[in-house]
Sequence to fold (261 residues):
Amino acid sequence: MRIATWNVNSIRSRIDRVVAFLERHDVDVLAIQETKCREDQFPGLALEAAGYEYAHLGLNQWNGVALISRVGLEDVRTRFADDQPTFADVLEPRAIGATCGGVDVWSLYVPNGRELDHDHYAYKLAWLESLRTAAEGWLAADPQAQIALTGDWNIAPTDDDVWDAAVFAGKTHVSEAERAAFRSFVDTGFTDVVRPHTPGPGVYTFWDYQQLRFPKKEGMRIDYHLCSPALGERVTKGWIDRDERKGKGASDHAPVVVDLD
Fold:
């Protein structure tokens, strides 16, 4: 079974690339972030024609998440907790989960945080803690649970995950509170299953469109698969499709893929 995550930065603009990616890499489940469209605007017909079913959560041109699967799509959920944090009293479309081929897959678009003194930063930390609490409960209820918390985490957990730590000093994505929030998932029992297969500094999943960051190799690693212990044991390979960041009409993120036995 092959599971991928990809912040596509507008599904309507990149549906052809998404379908081609699914077919080229024989992907079974794809978690998508930043769909940037309403439910009625989601280009589902192209996915159905390719043999996939989908579940989407989107309200407008901001945020939006989806799951695309050819191995089943059951028990679709749009909240990981009844008291999932909101921003400005709005429940943003940032999480969608479903059972796909026996795996509980979540497509997550973690809040950006914006600035360290912004309300969105506090919201980001509260959102992550609510997710961690929920995930801890799932593992407590079933230690053998097959869970993939996958998506755009908007956190660079180590200095190696940014092209120049000095450039990011005093900014979001690299603050100690955000990194501690990421580590708390590892402490709970979840594993970053792709890093062992893609080690070292200079391995990124995101390159800003501005200032030619991609050709300069000035990126960030912020997209992850955090897997439960039982699911992590099944991972045989993890990789980043850097080529998808190339060419006309590319997203500013690359897909991240894991293979299960």
